[in-house]
Write a structure and sequence with these properties.
Elements lengths: L8 H20 L4 H21 L12 H13 L2 H6 L2 H29 L10 H16 L2 H4 L4 H13 L32 E7 L2 E5 L9 E4 L3 E4 L2 E4 L11 E4 L4 E7 L2 E2 L2 E2 L11 E2 L2 E2 L2 H41 L7 H39 L9 H14 L2 H4 L2 H15 L1 H15 L4 H10 L6 H18 L20 E6 L4 E5 L1 H4 L4 E8 L4 E9 L12 E14 L2 E14 L4 E14 L5 E5 L5 E6 L6 E8 L5 E9 L5 E9 L5 E11 L1
Antiparallel strand pairs: 1-2, 1-15, 3-4, 4-5, 5-6, 7-8, 7-11, 7-12, 9-10, 12-13, 13-14, 14-15, 16-17, 16-24, 17-18, 18-19, 18-20, 20-21, 21-22, 22-23, 23-24
């Protein structure tokens, strides 16, 4: 069809000269017919080349160019084989590409035409399968170039326009971010207050379960410095490298009586607490508490006081012997044959010595009473030989045996643990009974002698630590989506495998999703319980928000991420996980929200994770935001439409890099509730 290029400069020169001659002959009225034919042939040949050269580049060809391309090709085909070979090769190649392009564009457009034509109307799309079908069709539509879309039928354009009004499409994508994967020790970076971040709470209102987003949030501050520290309402999680290239996670605290741990499927963070228990090595805890240093300081103080009492009692023995010797010397004076003057002098010296001994005795008694008062102030109850690991096991058993109402309160668990430990440990029982008698009569000598005999070092602070540690162990063991199944397999280590758990002695419990595990740089979410404020369960989004004036007013973006949720069905609770997909249109100030691959998870009696796919709890929703705002709000539904509720979210990070938020849904009867948090990042 197409010839190869061959220059014919000689012929062109000949035709140009012939054209001049033809003009002269014509003016003279004679001959020139062959020259006219050559001239005509030349003009036609040049016309073909010009028509090809004037064609647009292949990627810019629209349906309006199809006629010109066909005409150029037809005229090219009319050329002789010799002339075809004379057409410049780049022109031939351009014509080839143009023909192939319109053929490909027509085929691509025809395929999309057929797919779009098979879709229900926008107001009829309500099932998960139909929405999936729609989004797949729209992805193919959006994959077409602007030029390719000109080959679409007019009806396709109208249909897509109707969908555009009802759905948010990613058809004007913001530039890609290409952020690096965060290190496993990294945490989100922020110094922004969290008071207005999206949250959702499950509460009892007038005897019925309610899902509310207008109550005070639990996490009021999240002060984070990248690669330095995380402060959640005073609990500081440090993430500073002790050595270059060797990042570690340490913990410090501003508040008291709380514990923190990092847990994942491969194991939990370990804290060496040997020194805390007066041992050189061998005792580890998955938790660090806010009062570890206080426990150590108390143990040191109690130990020092017992040493002081030992010193005093030794001094009392020595003083008693001195008093005995002094009295013996006085008794001997009567039998001595000494001059009266010498006898009186000796008697005077021994009397003075006796007074000094008595004075020293009184001082020792006073010092001993002061030391006793210190011991009574510290009230140590447990011996140095306490087996922390065994007490921890007992603590977990005690907590699990409590009623659901009491189980959420560490103080109830503390009382139960102390009672259970005293039943198992005779020394603890004996010392405990002695302290009860002393509380009624501080001068009870027998009770004090019991305590002094055993010299306990640890106060109830060690039991308070055990209780919080036990709660953290239970959280790590009973958070199913970070646990392994019977085959030793993790559910989704690339996204869900990692939590930070914070337990407070007032019953508050916060579990932050590990942002590094999810690949996030700017945000994460937390679920929590807050019994003292009536929160059965809550979710809150936290992070480094996008400034309101930095939210774009044009362009689109697709966000991919994850969600975890609590599904309550007639009082029975299950953890739920799913993948998140959201599409934001910044010109429309609207965002679509869908989840997929919904699974519920539980820990079976053997301690293994069991997961079940529940597609009916996949979600879809739509939210909007106002001008000069960085947060959005809307409605959300379960796939089967049995659940309906509220969707909240916010943009986080530079260039609206991530989104995070919460949602709460329930059925019409109020028997089923689904409350969750989510995070997602754009590419």
């Amino acid at each position: 069809m197409f010839g190869t290029h061959k220059k014919f400069n000689a012929k062109v020169k000949y035709i140009a000269g012939a054209a001049v001659c033809a003009a002269l002959l014509s003016a003279c009225g004679s001959g020139g017919a062959s020259l006219e034919d050559d001239l005509k042939h030349y003009v036609e040949f040049q016309s073909v080349i010009k028509s090809i050269q004037e064609l647009k580049p292949a990627d810019e060809l629209t349906v309006a160019d199809e006629g010109r391309i066909k005409t150029a090709f037809q005229n090219y085909q009319k050329l002789s084989e010799q002339d075809k070979k004379s057409v410049p090769s780049d022109n031939v190649e351009k014509l080839k590409n143009a023909l192939l392009t319109i053929q490909g564009n027509k085929q691509a457009a025809s395929t999309v035409d057929k797919i779009i034509a098979q879709l229900p109307s926008a107001n009829q799309i309500d099932t998960a399968d139909e929405r999936q079908q729609l989004f797949q069709a729209l992805r193919q539509y959006n994959a077409l170039t602007v030029a390719q879309k000109t080959w679409l039928s007019p009806s396709t354009g109208k249909t897509v326009e109707s969908f555009s009004g009802a759905f948010v499409l990613d058809n004007d994508s913001l530039p890609s971010l290409n952020l690096p994967t965060p290190k496993h020790t990294a945490f989100i970076s922020s110094a922004t207050a969290q008071q207005q971040n999206p949250h959702m709470q499950q509460r009892m209102v007038d005897g019925k379960v309610a899902l509310l987003s207008n109550q005070p949030r639990l996490i009021q501050s999240l002060d984070i410095v990248k690669n330095d520290s995380v402060i959640v309402d005073g609990v500081i999680l440090n993430n500073s490298p002790k050595e270059p290239g060797n990042p570690t996670t340490d913990v410090q605290y501003l508040t008291t009586y709380s514990a923190i741990t990092k847990a994942k499927s491969v194991g939990n963070s370990g804290e060496d607490i040997s020194a805390l228990l007066g041992k050189d090595k061998g005792v580890y805890s998955i938790s660090k508490t806010s009062f570890d240093e206080e426990i150590k300081a108390l143990v040191d103080k109690v130990s020092d006081v017992w040493d002081e009492i030992d010193r005093i009692e030794q001094a009392e023995k020595e003083q008693a012997q001195e008093a005995k010797n002094n009295q013996a010397e006085l008794d001997k004076l009567a039998s001595l044959s000494l001059p009266l003057e010498d006898l009186e002098q000796k008697k005077k010296e021994l009397g003075k010595q006796k007074l000094e001994i008595e004075k020293a005795k009184q001082q020792l008694a006073k010092d001993k009473e002061i030391a006793k008062e210190k011991i009574m102030q510290y009230e140590p109850r447990y011996a140095k030989e306490i087996d922390y690991d065994l007490v921890l096991v007992l603590g977990k058993q005690v907590i699990k045996a409590l009623t659901l109402e009491k189980r959420s309160l560490p103080k109830s668990a503390l009382l139960s643990l102390i009672s259970a430990y005293r039943q198992q440990n005779s020394i603890a029982q004996e010392v405990g009974d002695a302290w009860e008698r002393l509380s009624k009569d501080k001068n009870n000598v027998a009770a004090w002698e019991v305590i002094k005999k055993h010299k306990p070092l640890f106060t109830d602070h060690i039991m308070r630590r055990v209780v919080l540690d036990a709660y953290e162990n239970i959280t790590a063991e009973e958070t199913p989506y970070i646990r392994k199944d019977k085959n030793g397999l993790v559910f989704d280590p690339s996204h869900f495998d990692g939590i930070y758990s914070l337990k407070f002695e007032d019953g508050t419990h916060i579990v932050l999703h590990d942002s590094a595990a999810a690949g996030w740089h700017y945000q994460t979410f937390a679920y929590y319980t807050d019994p003292k404020n009536g929160v059965i369960y809550g979710y809150q989004s936290v992070g480094d928000e996008t400034p309101k004036d930095a939210v774009p007013d044009k362009g689109t973006a697709t966000y991919s991420g994850i969600t975890t949720a609590r599904l309550t069905d007639n009082g029975a609770m299950n953890h739920l996980t799913a993948r998140v997909n959201a599409v934001a249109d910044f010109a429309k100030k609207a965002i679509s929200f869908t989840t997929s691959d919904a699974h519920t998870h539980r820990i079976n009696d053997q301690g293994f994770r069991e997961s079940q796919s529940l597609e009916k709890y996949n979600l879809y929703g739509h939210a909007t935001w106002e001008a000069s705002s960085n947060s959005f709000k809307g409605d959300v539904f379960s796939t089967d439409k049995s659940l309906k509720g509220e969707l909240n979210g916010k943009f986080y990070g530079a260039s609206v890099a991530e989104i995070g938020g919460t949602y709460g849904l329930k059925d019409q009867a109020g028997k089923i509730q689904l409350i969750g948090g989510y995070g997602a990042a754009r590419k």
